[in-house]
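request received
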Amino acid sequence: MPQQERELVSSQAGLAAAIAVESGPDLGEGTEPVKARSYWEQVWIRFKRDRVAMASGIFIVFLVLVALFGGPLAAALLGHGPNEIFFAGVNSDLLPVGPWTHVALGPDHPGKTTLFILGADGTLGRDEFLRLLYGARVSLEVAVLSTITVMSIGVTMGTIAGYFRGWIDTIISRIIEVTMAFPALLFIIALAATIGDRLNNFTLGGTFGRGVITLVMVFTIFGWYYPARIVRSSVLSLREKEFVEAARMVGASDFRIMRSHVLPHLVAPIVVVSTLIVAGYVLAEAGLSFLGLGVKLPTASWGVLLAAAPDFYLSVPWLMVWPGLAVLFTTLAFNLLGDGLRDAFDPRSSH
Amino acid sequence: MIRYLIRRLLWACALFVVITIVTFVIFFMIPVNPAKQACGQRATPTCIKNTTHTLGLDRPVSIQYLRFMDRLVLHLNLGRSFVTRQSVNKTVLNAAPVSASLVFGGAIVWMLIALPVGILSALRPRSTLDRTAMVFVLIGISAHPVWIGLIFLYFFAFKLGWFQIGGYCNFFHPVGGCGGPVQWAWHMVLPWATFAILFTALYVRMIRANVMEASNEDYVRTARAKGAPEWIVIRSHILRNALLPVVTMLGMDIGVALGTAIFTESVYGLPGLGKTALDSISSFDLPVTQGIVVFATLSIIFFNLIVDLLYAVIDPRIRLT
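response:
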């Protein structure tokens, strides 16, 4: 396996490669010049070999495209919107119609029908398929925004605590311990039920659905400690390394050392943890919206759609199948991608 | 070791004060006046004014908090519900056994599965067992408990008719022909399974990682080099070190789950703490919610303390510091 051997040489970093290139002519004509590969190139090569991780990555890209453009596109093609209510979406037993049903448009357009690909979402007769597509956007918005805020606060706090140690570390570590001892789910419920109503009206001028910002805030309050702990313990050992000492000796400021000498070493764990917690927040959004505390109607999210399922699950079981599968595949993809990235970043962690 | 224990006890007290203060502040931001709720549908201004005074809502938050703590610490009294006027102590004591059945039963299930599977798959990495276990772990952490619950109810209770569709049976006192240990266990099988799936997945992964890490330690190599039999190496060198963090996790998870097994409880209609809290919040019944939060906090602190005590016994390193 010549390819693997070649990489073995190049993974001995620049020095070996440089020697190989320089001594190239001496080794004769048959030897190819060995190219030095950067850290990111190596990560990419290892990631490309991992078929499961690649598939998850492609699935996630597809999902993001669907979340961004799928809803409006499908609405334009089908000719009705996700929040439109159809009397004909409910059958004579007062149950939502099944998948692939042509639903009458109503008295204004006699004789015309529109297609419900996955049936209706409940007694209001809205299109489940369209709501699933629009819900993808809301669910991913909550998950990604929460991840961004959680990671920014967590990494900042963790770096500060680990780098400065002393009383700053004590305070931050205590706050982390208190946050961990909170019955978080009860508090999230209490927050969503109390100040949630005021927060829900804060949508950044209609950019986000009602409840999205609330969820992001509660997830941030109770989630930042997780990356903070990971980053803190890494920084504690990184700050003792020679290159940090060298930087300090040359007179670099604390901020500069943290930014240019400590944080670059944390890129790999930060990327991996981010991927994994996106999965966690997709689940959390579904859970809270299921309990009626998350995204507010009529905005659709996967949790909101799942919440309609218990009312009909004996007669119309597919109402729990579609949003449930959407959540399952999404979290599965993010989890697999996270595991794949971890292996790609650190091949020794044969977890 | 005594100093260690005193430190942990003091920290537990501080934690309790901080968390009760935060609940109080959060609840003070409720947009609905609880007195209005307590007066019911035909709330007259006089009724609201009187109730506000009786409930002590016209006092500053700090006074309300001190009165609450005074009642709680000195009389172990959580107050009365705004809505039903029932004692909150009673509500919490009725709901706690339901949550306890779910959480402890679930914990037994997940430990019985996770311990052998986690250890065996770590000792034989990349074996069939290991690969199968990892697939289940991925599904377990990716599927939502609510969804698993709904699927279980549909197939095992509705389609196959093996179990009841939700509900709870008291272990001791039969209510309406439903009670006793057998009926209780019968109703709890699906909730236990649902609740345990996520934790089984997390624990299999954690135990596997810990055991694998411990197997690579120098002292394990030393033990093998000295010719110790394999089962002694596994038991005394690998497992003893690998399972210590599992004790911590188990204590914390049980403590947290007692108050927050809301998803499983609400899918199966179990009247546990989480379900009661959810119901009380939708009716702005502040004392009940607060009572449950206090109880949940106490259970978290209590189980953390137990873990600390256990550690002092099972981990000799603590005794030295």
